[in-house]
Amino acid sequence: MKERIEVNPNICHGQPCIKGTRIMVYLILELLEAGLTPEDIIRDYYPNLTEEDINACFSYYLKVPSPP
Q: How far is CA 22 from CA 6, 9, 15, in A?
């Protein structure tokens, strides 16, 4: 997960992103919450991502506490 998700204050206002992109983790999480599968997300929204990228977003969500 750590190598796929990065937090950089100079990219997307410091929001967690998929490394090498400006795709914020929360965007992927919203699509998953809406019922899309990783395959749907890759096919319909982000064809340059991999299933590992999508899984890393979900793992990040599970492991990193949300701000209060």
A: 10, 12, 9
